[in-house]
Design brief:
Elements: E1 17-20, E2 26-29, E3 48-51, H1 66-70
Length: 82
């Protein structure tokens, strides 16, 4: 190893993952940015967030658990097409 050369591998970030939960939100994990309709970055407090799928959250685009109260139903995998 030559002088000034780092021993650790270059910093690689994990890919962002989006996981749809059955009858619930999309969980987004990783390094990402969420923007509003005007392109402004929304402040995030964590590396994992839940995005609303039911459309009833009072914190949209974030999930507040309302899907449980309204009986929202959606699969976690791809829906079958006829």
């Amino acid at each position: 190893m030559s002088p000034g050369e780092s021993q650790s591998p270059p910093h690689e970030t994990e890919p962002v993952t989006i996981t749809p939960y059955p009858d619930g939100p999309y969980l987004v994990r990783g390094e990402f940015v969420v923007r509003d309709q005007e392109g402004n970055e929304l402040p995030l407090r964590r590396r994992t967030i839940a995005l609303c799928r039911c459309g009833r959250s009072r914190l949209r685009p974030f999930c507040d658990g309302t899907h449980k109260l309204v009986g929202f139903r959606a699969p976690s995998g791809p829906e079958e097409r006829w």
